[in-house]
Known about the structure:
The protein has about 280 residues and is of the alpha+beta class.
Amino acid sequence: MTNTAERHDAAPDPRGDWAPSRGVLMSYAYLGSCPQAIDRTHAQNVLRLREDLRTSAGAVMAAPLAIGMLDAAVVNVESMHVRAVTQVDVTVVDCALDVERVLSAGAITAEARSQLFTEAAIADADEPQRRIGFGSANWAVVGTTPQRFCFPEPAAVLPGAGALPPLWHAYSARRRFDGLLEIPRLQDPGAERLHHAPMLVVAEAVALEHAVETLGTDQLWVDSLSMSLVAPGRVGPFIATPVFSAVDTETVGCRVELRDTGWDDCLVAAAFIRMQSY
């Protein structure tokens, strides 16, 4: 294993392998994500915290922070034949009620033969000394280009368009007859793989709904989100189900499983989200 935390090699060529994937495979345009490479192992991203990226209490949600962190990491890892994130962890220490923009300062911390590790410090973009949280991710290294990722691309955000839909709705999830959320069947099963962004958004939405029912209030903030991606999403629909919760006064932790109902109900991802009443 080679530690790369102190290495500052040349930044990836924006005309290289990772640039097309930003626009086609892994577009985060709906969040206004604009990552920039600093060098081969460092990148940063800035997200404006719109209302739909916050809970009802105004606290920043963890999924958008995770997506922004991963989008910055993609700038670096795409040039290294890395295509699949396997673990995502985000801890929020400041719910950013009065923060307009957050800065994700990411880095590749270590490279191994079959895995790569990244992390990001998250801060107020206009007051960098104010720390919002921290995140990390593990990535699988592959030698060939895998099947393309399917990203349910939401519509563009238009200025003055009025209230934005819930983030899970914008990411193409829908409500089932039994009240659960699901991501629709892939358009080209067998050739596509479900992207991690809608997984993160839908898992957090399900956990927040469960916390509202459990605590009796929607004035919540998410202080941690951890997701393990254990299998590719192949067919769909993908159903998100709260399968475990633990409550302590004003804190609730919820495990959410995402299963591929079109592929023998295979477990695709499992997340644990911890929330507090504000």
